[in-house]
Amino acid sequence: QVRLVESGGGLVQAGASLRLSCAASGRTLSSYAMGWFRQAPGKEREFVAAISWSGGSTHYADSVKGRFTISRDNAKNTVYLQMNSLKPEDTAVYYCAADGTRPFDLRVPRGYYDYDYWGQGTQVTVSS
Q: At 34, phi and psi to the nearest 5?
């Protein structure tokens, strides 16, 4: 059974940085794309960033472009989200997601239904 566990969330002030981690277990996901989504209270879950299986391609939501960086360490079966210059509007539960059906796909999926596995989420709160 695949399990994704996020960590690194917390309460910070605007302008601060956080680094989220997502560790996968139960299956090696180094051949699959992975991504981050977030969901703020009263809003739908939205795409944040995604990375191809090799790490060679990435894609970001416009709202985080230039501030967030997604990366992965396939040897550790882990994906990261470095978040800089955080804003109050970044406050949300952040979810890690992994594709499990398209190995070595060159695309960087951005849709909720493109992903097969999801973590439980980690809360990020940015105060003004």
A: -135, 160
Three-class DSSP category at 27: coil
Q: Decide if 26 contacts 119 (C-beta within 8 A).
A: no
Nearest to 70 by CA among 103, 38, 113, 104: 38
pLDDT at residue 28 tops 90: no
* Cα–Cα distance measured from residue 58 to residue 55, given in angstroms and rounded to the nearest whole number: 7
Instruction: Look at residue 12 and give its three-state secondary structure.
Output: strand
Give CA–CA dist 94/46, Å, rounded: 10
Buried b or exposed e, range 52-85, using 16+ CB within 10 angstroms: bbeeeebbbbeebeeebbbebeeeebbbbbebee
Which three-class secondary structure state does DSSP give residue 84?
A: coil
Task: For residue 31, give the nearest of 123, 120, 116 by alpha carbon.
Answer: 116
Q: Could you tell me if 57 and 45 are in contact, meaning their C-beta atoms sit under 8 angstroms apart?
A: no
Provide the residue type at 115 as one letter: Y
pLDDT in tens, 61-92: 999 999 999 999 999 999 999 999 999 999 99
